[in-house]
Structure prediction request, 280 residues.
Amino acid sequence: MLVTLKEILEIAEKRDCGVAAINTPTFESLVAAIRVAEKNNAPIIIQHAQSHEYINQIEMIGPAMVALAKNASIPVCAHVDHGESIEYLEKGLKLGFTSIMYDGSRLTYEENVKNTKKAVELAHKFGASVEGELGMMAGNELGEDSPDDNEESYYTDPQLAHQFVKETNIDALAASFGTVHGFYKRQPKLDYELIKEIAELTKLPLVMHGGSGLSPEEYKRSIKNGIRKINYYTYGAKAGADATKDFIKNNKAVLFSEISRVAQDAMEKNFQHIIDIFCY
Prediction:
């Protein structure tokens, strides 16, 4: 069933668990995510990031996301991830997405607040939820390698987060506390006390961006301290790619339909692993 982000996060809060928020720019990843969630009776968030437009445009993959969410046996939120403009977010809402994320993290605080408030006003007209972001992370949504530096100056300031939430009226906050987008080149240093402090001050479910590639213990400690939504893409996409490489190498005659299924199965296995951890 199609639900809002706020509804999904209320379930996560009651269960004291994390919800997988999987970017699904391809049909194979979309089907894999829904199937795993249904098998585990677990709520899930399926996402399309604006930076993934080069893979599939939201007008193409969006209707499939919304349709599969509506037909699913478990609660599913269709979420626009890292929307860089109000116009793009509106596209998703008109397609039936039930949640949006405005990414103003690289703007000044004042500009971020101004635009996030616009996103909230727009979303409420559609009965949708809003995720905001404060603080910056290295790497990017394309899954490219992260730089070696992971400066603490990027981390979210708890007091500023409290102010940001009050000013914008968002439903969830993406905070920076040591994760990075893309692949990790070194062991991440997560600030769990920072997560806890932000959660206590804002009284909101917190979102982990750059959620791929962490250890089970890192996920569990983050969830324990207030993380409820965990964005996941890079390592799932890599699992699909690695499986297809092996399949092509070991088979003489290969059809694209076979490659597609191999990638889907591999991503499903990978998603199963993270759901096992998040819903411990």
In short: The chain has one domain: 5-278. Residues 141-150 have pLDDT under 50 and may be disordered. Residues 5-278 form a domain with the TIM Barrel fold (CATH 3.20.20.70).
